[in-house]
User: What shape does this take?
Amino acid sequence: MISNIFDKIRLLFVTEKKPFLRLKSILGFYPHDIRLYQMALMHKSMAYYEQGKEQPEEKTEQEKKRRKREPSQDVQQTKKLYINNERLEFLGDAVLGAIVADILYKHFGRKQEGFLTTLRSKIVCRNSLNKLAIDLGLDKLIKHAGAVTTGHNSFMNGNAFEAFVGAIYLDRGYKYCYRFLEEKVFKYYINIDNVAKQEKNYKSTLIEWCQKHQYKFAFQQKESRDGVHNNIPTFHSSVLVQGIPCGTGDGYSKKESDQNAAKQALNRIKRDKELLNGIKNAKGF
Assistant: This one.
């Protein structure tokens, strides 16, 4: 309560109030150091160098004594700092994982470690974080070069979400990170029980099904590069069961293209009786 009063008073002396109020609507509380959030929303494609200062290392006791005798020579060294959101992303990833684990541990009082680990992975996976960033409106605040968005799976939004959590941690601490995730994210955008029921690892499901029925399976990948943005590789996967093509999928990683191919294969096998009979016949039923 007292903190909120001080935050409102502080806002009176802020020249540009709009960014503070916009962040306040996303966070649910006032930010203190807005520069942290600006850095969290700075994609590496828009990174810049900032002149920083770094004290020279004192390696020996003799050097320390010399510095005391000759303070005028104790000059600061300058160093260029590369400004983007990657360091905050690293920090936010760790904080996010800890808080999500805490929330799941309390919500599922009797579930074992394997279940909790799998569920946490579903919640903090890049696709999920990308969606959360869009739901919260962070995607509209990210500073980036336009070419980055050409790949639908660039994970730029999800990375910014993690960096945003890192900014909250440095600005207001763990307690406020927890509050943000619990009251602004889980309350409105994540239904834990529904996520627990979702099956997302289609490749593992297909492999288990093939092993259960003793079917031979194979995943084949091909890499290609976009003609316009040939720095972005794409992958095309196809899955065969008993030598019969069952599904194909594309993605910006082998894992994603395999997942999409497996998903298509599972859907086809479930709905196409002719395909399923073909697989059985190929095995020798």
